[in-house]
User: Fold these one by one.
Assistant:
Number 1:
Amino acid sequence: MSDRPDFEKMNCPLPLTLHTTVQLAHGAGGRLSDELIDRLIRPRFANPELDRQEDQAVLEVPAGRLSFSTDTFVVSPLEFPGGDIGDLAVNGTVNDVAMAGAAPMALSVGLVLEEGLEIAVLERILDSMAKAAREAGVKLVTGDTKVVDKGSCDRMFINTSGVGMVRPGVALGADRIRPGDALLLSGTVADHGMAVMTVREGLSFHAGVRSDTCALNGLVGDLLDAAPGLRALRDPTRGGVATTLNEFARAAGVGIRIREDAVPVRTDVRAACELLGIDPLYVANEGKLIAAVPADQADAALAAARAHPRGRDAVILGEAVADHPGTVSVVTPLGAERILPMPVGEQLPRIC
Amino acid sequence: MKFLDEYRDPALARGLLDAIARTVTRPWTIMEICGGQTHSIMRHGLDQLLPPEITLVHGPGCPVCVTPLETLDRAMAVAAREGVIFTSFGDMLRVPGSDDDLFRVKSRGGDVRMVYSPLESLKLAQAHPDREVVFLAVGFETTAPGNAMALRQAVDLGLTNYSQIVSHVLVPPAMEAILGSPVNRVQGFLAAGHVCTIMGWEEYEPIAEKYKVPIVPTGFEPVDILQGILRTVEMLEQGVVGVDNRYQRAVERGGNPAARAVVDSVYEVCDKPWRGIGVIPGSGLRIRPELAAYDAEKKFRVTDLNPTEPEVCIAGEILQGLKKPPECPAFGTECTPLTPLGATMVSSEGACAAYHRYQRARS
């Protein structure tokens, strides 16, 4: 071993490429961008459409009607009990597409990353997106990534858009609801919103509360099989069940009457709601649907929902009625009746 | 859920409703003091189920509603300042001041944050030593200990960047103001159960004697409220005067001495204006003079306050039990929870908001 410097092995120091946090250069379209996409994103989402590495995906589709939806996710914190912004973003759009009676097939993903976001967090969220897509049977076929200056977004925002073919012969819409229709709710309410609330700064109680985020396309398929006359489907996310029911009542020009004691709420969720003075009917869900079903198909729909793992706790919540059109009312356990209005103002922080 | 379902049990509630109907022989006007009780009565539809002889009027027990306009205007001026983190309970953010609310201050760049506990504001002060953290401390005797504890800890920790705007109010002087009014129609009271958990009920005994009324400390669930009403009606029918506790599982005669001691260590009793009602002697709390360094009113000199109430709003008469919300010409038209003219339309404990939320369909 010589003491003299070995110029043979000398080279210019390369810029650091193995980062632990997201850098502005990761979004600049150069080498770091490629690394982010090739190393972190594409392998996780791999499918033939994405692997073409073009600026768009080309999808083979049968003739028919396409359901198309988009949603943007800004939940804080990024990770919460039962889920994270990643599976939320996949399931949210899958569900919106499915609520037309469609089978979701492909999603696009737009990522907005804040400079300084830990790569480890990003990897966990990408893993969770890939897993959610696999479980829902959809492919993430095209995407885009932007990095913004520190302070320009809160760590990470995700937009997803999705498409799926509507089942032939199925036409759903809130305006189709008629007096007498039964309103089916697929399970417990308020799990997602309260899960996010409980991990917010200063609210460290009720560790057992978990988000219900999940894809509902399988359940939608079973409901359509069992109740082909299904009138309308909607997932009661932001604003909760109360908001969806009000949207139904207004769109159809019918009244809606539900029974308060029919609303399923998990005990720990209910305790958290009571403590914070929040009505669970106004809290977001990310894995539930409300279906309006003709009365003669209500039993079949309920049985089909309960036979599906994601509709195990399904109930008939109430019905559409001819009186008080455009308004939702609740019959209390004591037999009094009060209205269930649209929510006013901001009730909760960013939850989806 | 244990300790909740029992008190919402429909069979128990129906039994009490039947007992009330059997007991009552003539019209009685009963005031529930607390906005939480008003909310519960509306939410469970109890007012629809009571016999027609009983009129429930809704008291001034909504801290958001009675916070003076001047305090709100001052809070907004402080919240808008550079370097301030302004904290408050959620309901306060939407209460209209003279021409603004805290949400709008936030949208213009003010750092306004909703907290669920006053201790969260204290944590913010510790986490941001370079900022001034201000907490808007409102409420009745129930919330006073928590707010006082935050201030107490700030003092003990030697924090110099923490202060409070205090607008605390006390129930007994307000009850005296209502009973002493020449237009009073209240014949019996459901006293606010949670206030009594802190203060006990001994301070109501002289009021019951002086004005010859029954006062019944009452809880918040349907069965609690119906028990309170039943006992009040029994006392009215029998001409019994005095205090009879019907919230035994939470309230003792002397209240919670430890909580009262914390309050006394940082706050003192003062004369206090109530929004819509006016100044009631000895009805408020303020920061003790020796803790002036923690008094945001003194720390941030705000001048040019010119509080102006909307002319049409009848919140004052509603808070005194003289009128009900639907009697207001603006109710449900000009004044809604989205466009509130008065604080009673904002808070979930406000009588106007409770009526608007639960009763529009029937009116």
Number 2:
Amino acid sequence: MTRFPFSSLSRRRFLKGAAAAGISVAALPRAGWGGSDQINIYNWDTYIGETTLDSFKAKTGLKVQYDLYANLEEMFAKFKEGNPGYDVIFPSDYMIETMIAADMLEEIDHSRLANWKNVDPNFRNPPFDPGCKHNVPYFWGSVGVGYRKSKVETPRSWKDLFDSDKYAGRIALLADSRFVLGIVLMYLGHSPNTTNPKEIAEARDLLIRQKKNIKAFAPDSGQDMLVAGDVDIVMEWNGDILNVMAEDKDLAYAVPDEGSILWIDGMCIPKGAPNIDNAYKFLDHVIDAKVNAEIANTIHYATTDLAARQYVDKADLANPAVYLPDEIVKKSKSLIDIGDALRLYDEAWTAIQAA
Amino acid sequence: MRDWRRNKAAFGLLIGPASLWLVVFFTLPLAIVWVYSFGLKGPQGQTILALTFENYTRALDWLYLEIILKSLWIALATTAICVIMGFPLAMGIAFAPKSLKNPLLLLVILPFWTNLLIRTYAWIAVLRTRGFLNFGLEWLHDGFAAVAAAVGLDDLLGPFQPLELLYNQYAVVIGLVYVHLPFLVLPLYATLEKLDRGYLEASLDLGAGHWRTLVSITLPLVMPGLVSGGLLVFIMSMGNFLTPDLLGGTSSLMIGNLIARQYGAARDWPFGSALSFLLLYATFIALWVRAAVAQRSKGLSY
């Protein structure tokens, strides 16, 4: 064991200085992203139209930097220590609420958006962001059940996934703790945003009992498992199942009678964005009727843009899997940020995985 | 440059860049994580710098200890299988004719040239219900059934039931062994290469059989290489989170996955940092054991 050579510099002081230096380095913005003819977008994968970015580049002549994230937590983790240089992001409802509370979003001036009148008035005052002060609504969807018609009868209730041995070993659920526990809580008659430890424990115990019948918790790949024949019934996002339904005619999508958890995504400008003017141009471009309809026809989710509806594929408009019928919407809930109670959900999820 | 004391400038110049790299990209981030492990989590997931041992006491809760123990068990199983498979392989390469040695080594290293993610996905394609392994078994099954039908014993085997090989802990161990086998074979091969064949010849001349020579002469002499390779496999398997994530089922949560969750969905960086440091302390203890073994054994050091 060699002796620590600098005896005057105690280890404690070295560590303090190291921590300070490290944190300051992390706060430096990315170089080369601040050009005024540039825009940096951070979005989910396969969540934009095929011609959206090209038509934007042709219209404005701006350079587009388009990065992807796989889930909201990945996006939030990047922004925690400061904006790494993005101008437009696409968070979901409860994440928007979290980021507003953490003061990470710019206020959006709707008068700067010529196409703001296109946005459906039903979506202009959501509970997570009153008056849409910090976001421009994008698309909304639901969580439901994808299944193989030849092996599984139409699921009328979430019971088939959580409480029955009918499809033992052929079930896959999402890997998102809040969505899965939220649906189980709704099935048990509680709110998906409850902070009551007894109710969360009830949901946890139900899933632990059901675990022997569940094949896997698939992070966004449940539809691949369904197509490959590994499972016959999955809990997945509606758009993902619709995409694989196009490949395999034996697959179908249904929302059980107890209702679903609806999510809605919005476009936001994070604080510290280097090109705010270009961001407004992009937001305005996306809510243009024709551009929005092209996105809708590519990704098969439900749009919040009323003016775009006339150009959206008639099959999608009539499809109850995309535009949920009113009775289901009335029974469905949305997730909200629960602050410190998130730890209860996380421990329940860890207990389910470890059991 | 025999003595660094006399050529301090040259020594400093040579060791400078590497040390700077290590300090900035290894020591500094590790120090930040260590500081975080004593912090608190804010309501939106912010990290508040504080001085509390709450994260460590929470990490020692049975819920998390169980996961650490399970990871230990899987890592031990992986190491054991790697040793059982890797030792004959390394012996084979070391005692092969000179012209074959390099091609054989190349075969061992070749998988490294493919991305780890692609190799793991390849295992999914092989092991799943409609995967290549089950295709092969189905083909064999149909062949036997056809032969049986031709002989007149219809329905001898019944319909084909595919093996459920994926999304459980066996698949995780298979994936881990596949990825880490070269890490055991290469250090072991290096040690075997340095083995003086004279010892083996002397042992055989003095009347010991091949097996006795292997157990009493070869094994003790290459023990340091075996321990190094085994330790490498063990430490890497414990911290792995990609393989359990892709190949594992509902009960395959390992400590790596748990830590990744804390930095992601759970938004609890201080707790993740505490868990990471528990893993780090376990690694240091394993390394200390290795040093103690190497000190005491009279084998070849390399």
